[in-house]
Amino acid sequence: MGAALLDALRARGHRVDAAGIGGPALRAAGLHAVAPMESVAVMGFSDVLGHLGEIRRARDAVRTLLAERPGSIFLPIDAPGLNLGLARDARRRGRRVVYYVCPQIWAWGRGRVRRLREDVDLTLLLFRFEEALLADAGVRAQWVGHPAGALRPDPDARTRARAALGVDEGERLIALLPGSRRGEVTRHLAPMLDAAARLAAAQGGVRVVVSDAGHVQDAARRADVAALWSALGPSVHAGAAEALLEGADLALVASGTATLETAALGVPLVLVYRTGALNYAIARRVVTLKRIGLVNIVLDEDVVPECIQSAATGPGIAAAAAPLLAGGAAAARQRAAFERLPERLGGAGAAERAADALAAFALEGAAR
């Protein structure tokens, strides 16, 4: 999202000098990275403890930037555990703050709303239902939409994708998206492979491809995963997940934004989520939602099966996925529900709307 925002700003003729924490896409878009996002992109309470040194160094680097750039706008993107504290630092230094991607106050309770009201000048929202929550709390916010709103099923793209992946006409393609963070891949890859093997054995004519957004090759060397990998013989797709999903008949997807992208492309899917026991015990106490899947939350309906924690096993995932892979009524019901997603996500142009909102905010400051 950050890279698309920078591109959209420049396409509108704005000169942008960007520095901060960023991943490969942001760095490719011209961000001067004072710390790589890979070093701080951790999930869960216990995972943070193992990366405190990297997180502290990244925070210090951003604080130095804030001190050195008095006329800058601080634009944190997601990562509230890291960025809400930095937003407060920025405000104390007199910097203006635009938060892109509202912290999930609807999942984790309303404690962070106060932080947005006190430390953020404008919050850009991915989901329209967030507007009312923040308006009621006196937080200035603007809905710009989610990038997945631009995605649509495309028969021609499906044909090209399957040809590029070498999928035969009679084969059904199962895409595995275990996540991008090391912890996600470590916890999700084995049960996903197990489930795919069970589906292939039960239904036949199945091809399995694993999306490698990072750490898959390392995880595949572990003894428990190596045996499954050897037995199943999956392929690896290291490019953009969209190019894999366009050709897929079923996807097993780690909870997160990838579930929205998968659904928007019309691919039947099962959500998978596992975390450490401590993380899960704490989350059960603070998460206020009955659903965790973004597709189900946005549609306000139980459309996608959610295999969470103890249910995220090979047999459990396979049982949830089997009716979808069979391609009958279950898959048709999901696809019909998915057709409502683009409108709920704002359609195409999310990055452009975010760029316009940021540019207008910058002009407000210049006019003072």
What is the CA-atom radius of gyration, in angstroms? 21 Å
The side-by-side strand order for the widest beta sheet comes to: 9-8-7-10-11-12
> Could you give a short account of the major beta sheet?
6 strands, parallel
Question: How far is the N terminus from the C terminus?
Answer: 29 Å
Shape: globular
**CATH topology assignment of the largest domain:** Rossmann fold
CATH architecture of the largest domain: 3-Layer(aba) Sandwich
Topology, number of strands? 12
Q: What does the average pLDDT come to?
A: 90
The number of domains is 2
Number of helices: 20
Structural notes for this entry:
This protein is of the alpha/beta class and 368 residues long. It has two domains: 2-145 and 349-367, Rossmann fold; 150-344, Glycogen Phosphorylase B (Rossmann fold, 3-Layer(aba) Sandwich), CATH 3.40.50.2000. Helix content is 52%, strand content 14%. The protein is built from 20 helices and twelve strands. The protein has helices at residues 2-11, 24-28, 45-49, 52-68, 80-92, 105-108, 111-119, 129-136, 155-165, 182-203, 216-220, 223-232, 241-245, 257-264, 277-286, 294-299, 314-325, 329-338, 341-344, 350-367; strands spanning 19-22, 32-36, 73-74, 96-100, 122-125, 141-143, 172-177, 206-211, 235-237, 250-254, 269-273, 306-308. A six-stranded parallel β-sheet has the order 9-8-7-10-11-12, sandwiched between helices. α5 runs parallel beside α7 (111-119). It is globular. The mean pLDDT is 90.
